[in-house]
Every structure is written in C-alpha cells, then in structure tokens.
Amino acid sequence: NYLLGVGRADCTGPVAEIPLMGYANPDQVGGGLLTRLYSRAFIMADLDDSRRVVFVSADIGMVSQRLRLEVLKKLKSKYGELYQQDNVILSGTHTHSGPAGYFQYTLFWITSKGLIRPSLNAIVNGIVKSIDIAHQNVRRGRLFINRGTVQNSQINRSPFSYLANPASERSRYSSNTDKEMVMLKMVDSNGQELGFISWFAVHPVSMNNTNHLVNSDNVGYASYLFEQEKNKGMLPGEGSFVAAFASSNLGDVSPNTKGPFCVNTGESCDNPQSTCPVGGATMCMAMGPGNDMFDSTRIIGQNIYLKARELYEKASQEVTGPLSSAHQWVNMSDVLVELNATHTVKTCKPALGHSFAAGTIDGVGGLNFTQGSVEGDPFWDEIRDLLLGEPSNETKDCHKPKPILFSTGEMTRPHPWHPDIVDVQIAVIGSLAIVAVPGEFTTMSGRRLREAVKKEFDSHGTPRMDVVIAGLCNVYTHYITTYEEYQIQRYEAASTIYGPHTLSAYIQLYRGLARAIATNTVQDLPPGPEPPLFNIGNMTLVPALTADRVPANKTFGDVLQEVRPQYRAKEVAEVTFVGANPRNSAENATEHNFLTVERYNSTSDSWQVVKNDASWDTRFYWTKGLLGRSNVTIEWHIPHDTELGIYRIRYFGHYRKKLSISHAVSFPFEGTSSAFEIT
In angstroms, rounded to a whole number, what is the distance separating the alpha carbons of residues 568 and 420? Predict the structure, then answer.
C-alpha cells in the first residue's frame, strides 16, 4: 500500500514562429497544432508519508537543465523541502514536434533561435501544475507491475554500430532493439483506476522534419487513445485518468519500420554510411508503416496503446516495499573510471563529432556529412577553426577515434555550449528501480546499465529488482553508446559527448547510487557540484510580436473560405478564417483552446462541443501573410464512426493592437463556420 496521486496539465506553449525541437532543422518552425502537449505527474509515497517520489513524463523533446532548475525552484517556494532534486524525476517523451527554446547552453540556441521565455515558461508552469494536481489528489492506493513485448513498432537505425558489440553479448538477446514495455498501474484503495506509467524504447519521430504542426507524436497518440477510453465522454485533456508513455533507452531505435530508402530512386540505403548512390546521405530517409506521416504516427501509436491496454488489464503482480531515491550531480567531463583492478580511464570535455552533422535516417542533416566518419573533413575543419577555434590536442586525443566537429567543452561564449555538471538519479518504489538517465542510451548501453544496477542490488541483499530506464531526464547530454559502438562513429556515437568511456562512467555512477540505496547509506552520498544557472534575458531571434491587421472590409474571425454544405465520414471539412498570430493567445491564457467542432442538438436547441484543438482528427494551420495579416485554416478529418447530424467549426484567437508606441494589448475574438451536415 502506498499514497498515490496523479495529475495532468497542458504544457503546449506557443504553436507558431517557434522552431520545433528535435531534428535541429532551422526551417522546421511551428505553424499550427495537431495535438496538445501535456505534462503527466505521478506522486508515490510511503503510507506514513515519510518519503515521496515524483515521476513526471512531459510531451517535450527532452528535459533541459534550465527547465529542471526552474521547476525545482518553484516547487521549493510552494512545498519547502518536500519535493527536491533527489526525489523528483522529470522525463521527456522525446517528441520532435514540440516548441524549442528552453535551453541555457549555447549549442541548443543555434537551431532554437536562442532562449525563448514563453516556450520555457509554458513547460515550467505545465510541469508544476501537473505536480500540484497530483499533490492535491494524493490518497491510499496500490501499485501493480506488468511487462510484455511490443511487436512491429521499432527498428534499430544504426544496426552496423550494434554489430560492433561482442558476439557473445549479442547472442544473449533475440533482437537489436528492446521490445519490452514495462507497465506500472495505479489504483486507489476503493478500486478506482488512477492511471499508469509505461516505459518503452522508441523514438517519437513518426512525424518527420517536414512537419510544422505541434504534436506529441506516436507515444502521445497512445496516451490520447488510452485517456479517451478511460475518461469516457470527456474532451482530450479532461478527466482524471492519466496515461503516461515515457521514454527509455531509445538512442538507436526508430519507429520507421520500413527502414531506410533513397527518396529519389526508391532503393534501400541500409548501409554503414546510410548513403545513396545519387544525392548521398541527404537522400536516405526511413519510412514508417503508413501512407504518410500522420498515418504512421497513428499506426505506431495504436500498436503501443493496444499492448499497454493488454498489460494494464492483466497487471496482477503487486509492488510492495519501501520508497527511496538517490541523486548526485557529477562533473561528467572529468570522471575517473576504474575498468578493472589495474586499468583506469577518463571521460572527456564535451565535443561533437563530424557524423553529428549528418543526422539520422529519421531526419538527415542539411549539409553533405555522412554517418560513420572517422576522418575529419579539411573544408569544414577550416571553417570551424576560423569561427569557433580549433579543439585542443588533449580533447582530440581523449575523443579518438571521433573526429571533432565542435569542441563544445572549450567553447564558452556567450555561455558554455554544453553542460559539464550532469544529474544521475535512481528512485526505488518497492521492487521497481527507475534509473533516470540524462540523455539517449542506445539499446545495448541500456542493457548494460540495467544489468549493472540489478547486479548491484542483488549483491547487497535486494534481489529480484525490476530495473527500468527512464530516458531524457533532468539535463540533455545527447547520446550514450557502448565503447564498441563508439568506434564506428555513426550519429549516436558522434553525439556521445563525453568520449568513448561515457557509458562506463555512468555505469560506475549508477552502481554507486544503487549501492547506497541497497545499503541504506544514501545520506552519505556527496551531493556533488551544483549546476550553474546562467543569467540570460530574452536572448532570441524569434520575430517580435507585431500588431495584427485584417484585409479591407473584413474583421478578425471572418470566414474567407467556407465549408461545404455536406460531408460524409472519412472526408475533410475545411474552413479558412481571417486570423491573428497564435502566439498572442499563448501569452494571454495558459490553456487557450483554438478551435471546437460542435454538433447541433435539436432537443435542447443548442450546440455541443464534440472536438477541440487537442483532438487527433482536428488540425489547426496558421499562415502568415504580409503587413501583419494572417489566415487560419481548420481541418476536421471526419472519423468513420462520427454520428450523423448538423455540425459547425469555431475558431478562437487573440489579436494584438497597439495603443501607443510602447503599449500593445490583445483582444479575444472568434469565428464560426456555416453549419454543415454529415450524411
């Protein structure tokens, strides 16, 4: 028995003009909304409430150090010492379609256009609000664990790196990805279902880098399906049941199950360099199972959801036992790793290799870099030396065989380009150990880490622990490959920023945390060096908000392109309005809803909302015109099981008006389509 609380809150932020975080493609800027982003919080406590653990899974690319520090600061001012760095885990789902701009390290500013306050604030406030809701709902309950295999939902996107791992190690596993989903189900003492956290290793990159609609990708769609099923009759984002699909060791795992093909010729490019005969690496893209990216997102999300539903319904193994958590800050650029009794190695100052710029088969880089480069390129190296300075010999030697593209650990202007101080953290709930990792562990790296942690618990009298990896927690440090995968220098290895011994260092550190928990000596762990909080104003290249304007003889919310009078199921109802910048709305209301689909009820002579902007089958597009004008187009992809009847689509926005040179105000407005019939 435990005390349990769950909560969910919107953390979407601005859906226009903000770069999306994930593919590092500067052209991929938000231009609307497919589904909302949520933070999902779970509080677990001993019955006597002596110890608490908070696990948050947020629909964002990753948790940044800035984000975590600001969340902890807010929690401290609200709750004192109750929620702090050791017992709060913040994890990102790793969607690549959420707003960027919430980082304090300079490298991330390049594609994020700086530090974007509205984006950061939306995520901080959403996470804190979800924890507040969970905190207010804490009650007695029970936990159940289950695990099972998810089929047809992932491939290894760097199989040639995986093959570099020892054959004896590979032979212990049936696949080059981890197909297991772990399910932690929560029920209160009256038997009311509260929700669950599940962990499964897959990249949420079913939506590719041509997408401009903010959304939570495949795992977010799985959450949506489960919550819609359990919160009957509620709109998305409403209802008390919370379903989290959290990330795990997804470093080399893609949902694009058809594998890599040359987009120009259609032939396979499943080769060590992921390159095509014509057009090179930029033409090599992996395809999902669907006929477009929306369809692939739906198929993979539904696979994950169906497995979760089965595991949830059959979960019968109860989790019992005490709670504990351990946390340390570590300077990852300077860890001494004891490989064995006689051999010691070191981690390195952070640096990115040439293949980092190549991207992956899920999203290629814009320049002609290829994966698997163990040689530098004199042309790019020369440009780098001129602009950013040459890496020191010490850093070059430390990272071998990685040819260094950016020596980020030696770049400090205007602020350091990469973190040195990193969080390592484990939370234990009875027989479940959640290992919170600060980045993307590959399949084999994750297996080694889980095994090492399990062994540590075993050898200190805590056998049969379920060890699960929670990915993209607390601070972002890119990838963590095995030493053997590192030698191949594909994208994941080039992005293993602390050098070839990064994984060994983490294994040593997490074993230390596990040992402290198992031997009840957590209080003796040194906290480590605190991470810096840089004093950054609003450093951003995002265009300033200007006054919105309308065409002659029109006003905000007027219909420019009307719906048709009749539609059938599976068709798309579409309407275009005179619009205004959606950023106005994000800055005015924390939970602004941009649209509704409403059905006419003749008995009550009223309109009932049946869909909102978080619904999977609605799409909100914003198109910027000249001189402050813009249009909004709303699509409703009418599902096959839609009730027949009369419907309309409504749009809700805010326009910005200048009252004086220095003072502008936003005013709400709305627009409504004509009624249409579904026949």
Answer: 57
Note whether residue 211 is domain-resident: yes
Please spell the DSSP secondary structure of 512-558, one letter per residue. HHHHHHHTT-GGGS---PPPP-------B-SPPP------TT--TT-
Average pLDDT, the chain: 96
| 254 catalytic per annotation | yes
Domain count across the chain: 2
In a domain, 26, yes or no: yes
pLDDT tens by residue, 255-298: 999 999 999 999 999 999 999 999 999 999 999 999 999 999 99
Shared domain for 481 and 622, answered yes or no, is no
Q: Is 203 annotated as a binding residue?
A: yes
- pLDDT band per the 50, 70, 90 thresholds, residue 119: very high
3-state secondary structure of 229: helix
Tokens representing 369 are 């870099």
pLDDT tens digits, 342-365: 999 999 999 999 999 999 999 998
Q: Same structural domain for residues 512 and 563? A: no
604 is written with which tokens?
């009550």
169 is in an annotated binding site: no
Which residues have CB under 8 Å from 171's CB, separation 6+?
Answer: none
Catalytic residue among 158, 248, 254, 373: 254
The predicted-structure confidence for 506-541, as pLDDT tens digits, reads as follows 999 999 999 999 999 999 999 999 999 999 876 788
The verdict on 484 and 571 lying in the same domain is: no
Do both 507 and 638 map to the same domain? no
Q: Are both 171 and 240 inside the same structural domain?
A: yes
Pair 485, 571 in one domain: no
Residue in the block written with tokens 């095509």: 276
Range of the structural domain that residue 157 is part of: 2-331+418-524
Asked if pLDDT for residue 223 goes beyond 90, the answer is: yes
Do residue 505 and residue 593 come from a single domain?
A: no
R_g (Cα) of the chain, nearest Å: 25
The answer to whether 483 is annotated as binding is no
Q: Is residue 190 part of a domain?
A: yes
User: Domain check: are 121 and 253 in the same one?
Assistant: yes
HSE of 528, CA atoms in CB hemisphere, 13 A = 22
pTM beyond 0.85, yes or no: yes
Q: Is 105 annotated as a binding residue?
A: no
pLDDT at 367: 67
| The predicted structure's pLDDT at residue 558 | 98
